[in-house]
Amino acid sequence: MSIAISGQAVKFVQSDESGLYAVGEMITVRLIGTGELTDSIAIRIIKNNDHIMEVKKILPSGGDIGIFSGSLREPCSLIFEARYKGGLSSLGLMAGAEIIRAGLEAPKDFNSYWKQQKKALRRVPLEIKSEDIISPDIEKDYTCTNIEINCPETNPARGYLVMPENPQARSMPIVLLVHAAGVSGHWCKSEPRNAMVYAKMGAICFDLNAHGMLNGQPDGYYNDLEKGELRGYWMKGVTNRDDYYFRGMYLRLIRTIDYLAALPWWDGKRILVIGESQGGGQALAAAGLDRRVNAAVAIVPAMCDWFGSLAGRRGGWPQPYESGDFKEEMKNTLPYFDAANLLKRSKATIFAEIGLIDMTCPATSVYAAINNSRGRKIIYTVPYRPHQQPHKDMLKIWEETVYKPREQFISDFLK
Q1: What is the pLDDT of residues 78-87, one digit of tens each?
Q2: N or C: which end of the chain has fewer CB within 10 A?
């Protein structure tokens, strides 16, 4: 079955609505709806998010225009773009998604390194600071607490804990919310209302900010961090594994899970981590670093296959290996924090959403990571999704076919 994907005046059509093909399978891509256009259309085909495979201009014909017909002889992705006066249409596809592998193997001491890191972290007793929060976002019969958890060698873990009042012992699952990249944006900050959503579903919910920032501060506090201490944080310490910024971020994840798992109300069985982009990368990292995490929802996740460029593919955000110098030093640092390596230790159920036109967190990078997981995988690969939510033309379809199944997965897990 063919499906029209994305766009306004013109639309791409491909031969399989999923956008997923076997290596060697026949693929056709056509452009339709060109009758209203009078100017030329600029076509670009991008392989593996990084290589321009073809650029051409075509004239509107009023009918279908063949753009691609053939097969792909290796695991890879293609993105098709049509630029015309007043708009852009895009479509993505992949061949051999299930056999894509990371661009660089894990170091031999990967397991021992993380074993030592966790041992050193847990050698220091938990110290908790808490403050009850009154918020209009917290409904009656629920509590909200601003929590700070000490975390040796890095910033404390900070977030909001929301749960029902007067819970019974060992009665509730844990939901850990983690955030997308940035510092000052609303999507970067912990908010009581975020945690309230899952508390109402019967969970102990902790909304953790990625950087150990103070919660509930004036905008100036976050703006100053973004311009100062946390400017370009994703490249800080990139030449030394013990100094790399993501080490602290991952240690805060582990520390937070240790704290939550010690609460007497946890049912002792279920921990779900949910995040998008950088948060999706954290969700995968948590699933790989802590076996108590038995489910992760990773939406267009970052921090995957950082060495994809060694295999001719664009790596996952923040593309540190492509972005910086000191390549050999980075080879000795980055693999310890790459979700592609972390997931080799995971048996968690992973619910992943992957955008086939995502230029920030390429589909190939996400598959390279998730293919290493040993647990159940529920993957929604979306041919019309960029890094942000889909274009308004496709939003309703996405809500019905991707968003609702994701929410149902979470609901079923928390029952």
Answers
A1: 999 999 988 8
A2: N
